[in-house]
Design goal:
The protein is α/β, with parallel strands linked by helices and 208 residues long. It is built from five helices and eleven strands; from the N terminus they run E-E-H-E-E-E-E-E-H-E-H-E-E-H-E-H.
Length: 208
């Protein structure tokens, strides 16, 4: 394994019109976790699903944290760049376009960091229960990239003010952000699936 390689799953596209998805699991998940979600929200898409390379009490994550909601920002930067290199390698290896990230919790946070640090890697992102990943990110140019941010009104982990700040941060960097706050906690609901599916459909239609 090279330094940029991740344990991962890849499922090729079965429909030419569907964007490839980069599936990024939450803490304690793995490369199989979000495959079902990916198929539900964008049937026919190629699916690229890496396993986070950081272990916290044996649970895979995409970067280190110092406490609940307190990130090791140096590690966030390093891991986001590693993930960006992995995606670039995977695009060549599997012959896919720039993917839309679909991240949950820790996976959504690394996807947000990737948007801010290496904007060219992703075509857009669905950020499920995401937080601001970096307190002082470099100025990114997101050039109209579409981002769907879905937050839970009763989320005990992500304060409403934090997700609102992330929406503002991404908008100021030029992303086309749709931010919805759902009557949910940190776990995903059927509303998340339905909104993500509709959003992917509208983004794909605009790109066509």
């Amino acid at each position: 394994m090279t330094e940029t390689s991740f344990i991962h799953r890849f499922e090729p596209a079965t429909s030419a019109g569907s964007p490839p998805l980069l599936l990024l699991h939450g803490t304690g998940g793995d490369e199989d976790d979000l495959l079902g979600l990916g198929k539900m929200i964008s049937p026919g898409s190629a699916l690229l699903s890496p396993r986070g390379r950081v272990l916290e009490h044996g649970m895979p994550r995409f970067f280190r944290r110092l406490a609940e909601g307190v990130f090791d920002e140096d590690d966030v930067r390093r891991r986001a760049l590693e993930l960006g290199d992995f995606v670039a390698d995977a695009r060549q290896r599997y012959g896919i376009a720039a993917p839309v990230a679909v991240g949950f919790s820790n996976g959504a946070n690394i996807a947000a960091a990737l948007l801010l640090l290496k904007p060219d890697v992703l075509a857009g992102a669905i950020l499920l229960r995401a937080m601001v990943p970096l307190s002082d990110p470099q100025k990114a140019e997101l050039g109209g990239k579409p981002v769907l941010l879905l937050s839970g009104q009763a989320d005990p982990i992500v304060p409403a003010s934090n997700s609102a700040r992330l929406a503002t941060l991404l908008s100021q960097a030029g992303a086309r952000v749709t931010h919805k706050v759902l009557p949910a906690g940190h776990q995903l609901s059927q509303a998340d699936v339905a909104l993500a599916r509709d959003w992917i459909g509208s983004v794909t239609a605009k790109a066509a």
